[in-house]
Specification:
This protein is an alpha/beta fold and 298 residues long. The protein contains eleven helices and eight strands. It has an eight-stranded mixed beta sheet with strand order 1-2-4-3-5-6-7-8, sandwiched between helices.
Length: 298
């Protein structure tokens, strides 16, 4: 098995080096936390220099999505042209980015927190003192829950239309197992049960962003960026974000909140990833991505 792991690592390394001219690197690696080979897309800085370490943004996909969504469905490549930043977009299935309560072979929190950074750093050295995490919908929930569960790891956490009502509304979901989510992605019942189980209240509290927020000191948390569309198809997302950001203000946490016209779709996320990146640039003190001829002007 170890030999197979080394072969998989070498395969991605060869893939990455053979496409040195491209900012978008794709490949896969074996994750012991999920006992599977996982795909990842890495967006390199415009003027990538292999001799330096770059700050990194782990950018998470939503329910029903995959590692290609951000580069295929937004202008992320353009928005990051001026930033000396590495963006890592992992495959995570419909895992909710947590260590499953019901499946010991589905430790997605460990995969994101430990396996993924270790792999990326082995090929594209990252600055582990300047890490950020963000995502949309399920990935927005994932970014916040991982940042709150590992408050010393990230400097910045971003949530776009985050499904932060999970796991608080699990009982309602379980009572209506065949209710589809907006966009006709199908019932979320199987993924909810696999990730959170259906009985363990303590496990739910340990993965509830509202509970976690009240456990942590203000100075131990990353800067938090939230954005949600006023017309979001999930009717409870908007009020949930209002409650969450009110708690951030009440507890003296550093945050930015955008409540703007928009629905639960890629047009909204393509727009709101831009102010998220600009705030992250300030918080993480990102350099501009420049070569010997200067920096991009657009």
């Amino acid at each position: 098995m170890k030999k197979l792991h080394r072969m998989l690592l070498c395969l991605l390394f060869l893939t990455a080096t053979s496409f040195a001219e491209s900012r978008i690197q794709t490949g896969s690696f074996y994750s012991p936390s999920v006992h599977d080979s996982m795909h990842v897309v890495i967006l390199l800085p415009l003027h990538y220099d292999h001799s330096r370490r770059y700050p990194v943004l782990f950018l998470l996909h939503g329910y029903g999505g995959n590692q290609n969504d951000w580069t295929n469905l937004t202008h992320l490549e353009v928005y990051t042209e001026r930033l000396a930043l590495m963006v890592v977009m992992p495959e995570a299935n419909n895992s909710w980015y947590i260590n499953s309560q019901t499946d010991r072979n589905a430790r997605y929190e460990d995969y994101i927190i430990h396996d993924l950074p270790k792999f990326v750093d082995s090929h594209f050295p990252i600055d582990t003192t300047r890490e950020a995490i963000a995502g949309l919908s399920m990935g927005g929930y994932g970014a916040l829950v991982l940042a709150l569960r590992h408050p010393d790891k990230f400097l910045f956490a971003g949530d776009l239309s985050g499904a932060i009502t999970i796991p608080a509304v699990i009982d309602s979901v379980l009572a209506h197992p065949h209710s589809p989510i907006p966009g006709d992605q199908g019932p979320i019942y199987p993924s909810i049960v696999k990730a959170f189980g259906d009985k363990n209240r303590k496990f739910r509290d340990d993965h509830n962003v509202f509970v976690l927020l009240q456990r942590e000191r203000a100075d131990s948390l990353p800067y938090i960026f939230c954005a949600v569309g006023i017309q979001d198809g999930y009717k409870d997302f908007l009020p949930a974000h209002r409650i969450f950001t009110n708690l951030l203000r009440e507890f003296g946490k550093l945050y930015e909140y955008h409540e703007v016209p928009g629905v639960h779709n890629w047009k909204f996320w393509d727009e709101e990833i831009q102010p998220l990146l600009m705030r992250m640039k300030i918080v993480m003190k990102l350099d501009l991505s420049c070569d010997s001829w200067g920096c991009p002007t657009h």
